[in-house]
Amino acid sequence: MAGISFKRHRFPPDVIRHAVWLYFRLTLSLRDVEELLAERGIDASYETVRCWALKFGEAFAQGLRRSRPKPTGRWHLDEMVVKIGGKRMWLWRAVDDEGEVLDMLVQKRRNTHAALRLLRKLLKNHGVRPETYATDKLASYRAAFRKLGCSKRHQPGSMLRNNRAENSHLVIRRRERKQQKFKSQRSAQRFLATHAAIYNTFNLQRHLISRSTLRLFRAEAHAAWAIATVAA
Predict the structure, then answer these.
(1) Closest Cα to residue 27, out of 185, 227, 213, 176?
(2) Which of 15, 149, 182, 220 has the fewest CB atoms within 10 Å, i.e. is most exposed?
(3) At 75, which helix (H) or strand (E)?
C-alpha cells in the first residue's frame, strides 16, 4: 500500500495525523483541536487544522475503507433533514445491522430519484446484494426497489424496525450542532464521508463487550489507522 505524502508541511506527520483524528473522531470544533494541540506545546491555528482535515481527511478515509470487512446482509436505510446554508436538504444514509455506516448522500429532494441514487451507489461500492433492506414507510423507497427489482427483499415498516438507522443519526446531529450547521452541500458530503470511515473503524460497541475485549479492539482500530495514514 502506497503511503501518504506529507512533504512541504512544517509539522511532522504524527502531529497532522493526530489533529485530523481528533477532529473527526471526537465531537470537537477546529478551535477545540487548536486548544488541545496548544496544551501539548504545538502552535497550530484552527485554520491550519482545517487545511489538514480537507487535504488529508479523504485520503485517510480511503485507506480505512480498504481494510473494512464486508457489511452484513441486513441493511437499514433512512433519511434525515439537514439545514445547509440556510436551506433544507436531506441526508440519505444506510447502515448495516451492526451499525456500520455503508454510505450517505446529501440531496435536495426526498423522492424516488434520490432513493435510487443512494441504492445504486450502495450496490456499486459494496458489490454485494443484501438479504433485506429495512426502511420506513416512505413511498419513494418502494418505487425505487421496484425499479431495481429488489421488492421482495424490501421490508418497509415502523420506526422500531428501522431503529438501527434512526440511532445512527444521533452522531450526525451532535456534529451538526457543534459545527453550527454545514455551510454547503459539497462540504457536508465531504465531511460526512470522511467522518463515516473513521467512525466505523473506532465504533467498538463498548457497551456489548468486556474491558479486555475493548482493549484488544481498540488496539486493532489504532493499528488500522496507523496503516491507513502511513507516510510515504
Answers:
(1) 176
(2) 149
(3) strand 74-84
Instruction: Name, in order, each residue with C-beta under 8 angstroms of 27's C-beta and a sequence gap of 6 or more.
Output: 174, 175, 178
One-letter amino acid at 226 equals A
Residue at 105 is within a domain: yes
Whether 117 is covered by a domain: the verdict is yes
Element (H, E) at 82: strand 74-84
132 inside domain: yes
pLDDT digits 0-9 by tens, 58-83 = 999 999 999 898 899 999 999 999 99
DSSP-derived letter for residue 132 is E
CA angle 173, 175, 176 (to 5 degrees): 60
pLDDT digits (tens, 9 = 90+) for 116-160: 999 999 999 887 889 999 998 999 999 999 999 999 999 998 655
Q: Do 102 and 40 share a structural domain?
A: no
- Listed in sequence order, the DSSP H helices in the chain are 13-25, 30-39, 46-66, 112-126, 139-148, 163-178, 185-202, 211-228
pTM of the model: 0.91
Whether 196 is covered by a domain: the verdict is no
